[in-house]
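quick one before i forget lol
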Amino acid sequence: MQYFTISLVLVFMSWLIFTNENDLFTGSGKSDFEVQVYERLVNHDNIQEAHLEMNITAGKISLNAESTSLLEANVRYFDEEGKPEYSEQISSNNIVRMNLSENRQNSSVNLTNRRNTPEWNVMVRPDVISNFDIAVGAGDIDIDLSATQVSTFNLSTGAAQANVNLSNSLVSELEIKTGIGAVTLDVSGNRINDLTAKVQGGLGALTLIVPEDVGVRVSATGLGHVSARGFNRERGSYKNDLWGKSDYSIDVSVSAGIGSVTVLSK
């Protein structure tokens, strides 16, 4: 396995500001709320495909595929506007569109007091063709959809640290947009289809993990530094030796502001 790490002092300082400055993200400055718990369990027969949309202002978010239900959610929140709302639509061809989002009219969330940080724990079934559209303003994001039938995946964040594991999945299209923070994206493992990915970053670092036995091209633009040992550089692209030769391929377009791009092969 090849592993490369780029440290970016500016990103680290920005992250410290995000996690410690009350006035930047907290709004009201309130620190003590009574914890409330929201739970939702969704089951439908004969569903052929599922779409999940989530819109969250801030918090700690965990999404994985360890449920036997279409959707299983447990959310800890601390004010009424942070209470999740769920809605769904089921089409005649058994496609369900689910929306699990906050009922928040303003963006005031206190992240400096860890006891009062909203926590979203969401699980889905791994054996249903799924599409995800997730937007998170700020927080810690941990997504593990490895070995699932996820088809498309979209993640948009403002100031966050995100770990996204899509290894050994069927994902064919993905897009990640970030403002400030670090993103680790794992698309390694066995592939039985092509993957097209777009990553847009502002200030931060991207770590991209790809399989070593699949053709991979990474096209990068911006002011960031790219580290991709074992890849051949051709103008603005980095290609491994299997690009154009393997049955399936991974084509990644990275648009970075100020930061770094690190490519790992395993």
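fyi The longest strand covers residues 249-265.
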